[in-house]
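User: Teach me something about this protein's shape.
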Amino acid sequence: MGRVAELADVSVRTLHHYDEIGLVRPSARTVAGYRAYSAGDVERLREVLAYRRLGFGLREVAELVDDPSIDAVAHLRRLRGLLLERRDRADAMAAAIDRELEARARGLKVTPQEQLEMLGARLYDAIGGAYTVTRRTDPRIAAQIWDAIGDAQTVLNVGAGTGSYEPADRDVTAVEPSAVMRGQRPPGSAPCLAAAAESLPFEDQSFDVAMAVSTVHHWRNPIAGLREMRRVAHRVVVLTFDTDEPGWQDRFWLTRDYLPEFATVLAGFPSLAGMTDTIGARAEPVPIPWDCSDGLFEAYWRRPKAYLEEHVRRAVSVWTRVGPQAEQRAVRSLSADLDSGRWTERNTTLTDLDTADLGLRLLTT
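Assistant: First, the predicted structure itself:
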């Protein structure tokens, strides 16, 4: 334990505390009976310390490292995204300070409003590379979802993430198992409980509507989660993906030409027919605008260069799921085809389209 503490630059007392609370428990023993860390223990400790140094509390760290849907590679990618975001924020803040220093050196007066703008809204505008910025509510998709919600007053948002598409004029309760996502919900957003879709902590028919937006594919048991939504609400609204159509992966040029591994990502995903039958829903297409502001996987179908950007890919779970080799191969191939003009030749029909049907479906009961 002493050697591990030295290598990790923490105290032995810290490691003892992690052991006592069950956060990182050494699973091996030396011949002399002292506690020792296996390779798996060290990997878990690395994740714990990384999240701690990013400012997460011990309870949040425990939820993160115990998430069974996230493997070591996914943790590394998540940590990298968080570190890049912090770096981008620091760089933007330093640039804002430099601008103010330059203004003061020239004898220009900087008003309190300008000071706040430099480090407030304008700062966040400058952080285009932060992965959280790419996932925003698109008003056209929102209009379709909110129209399906109708006149419901009490709304449960299941797998709520950072709160996109929550109607601001309703009584919303959110459920989100990920501490990372809950920590990114903006001030003033709906109260959010730590719970999973498969086991919602509510009585039967507690809400007018239960909604779930681009989250079902993350659930351990999508059908069980949908049944729970049906149990706790009078109506259900779900934005999901259709894999029933033969050759569905060929609808989108990115999966057709560059990322065939996408099909394996959704290999165990329930059929659209199975989901609609489970909750007694009807399905309608959700067209994706060419300038969609929600950076979901298909959002940049008419803006292919966006997929070459690291921060764009990090905001979409597909890239983590397919693995780094497939990701980098796809990026290299797409970059080469954009440079050569081959992508344009293959996709000339897209330039005249304002929206595209790439498989997004809205299920409503």
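Now, about its shape. DSSP finds 17 helices and eleven strands in the chain. Residues 120-131 have pLDDT under 50 and may be disordered. If you'd like, I can walk through any region in more detail.
User: That's plenty for now, thanks!
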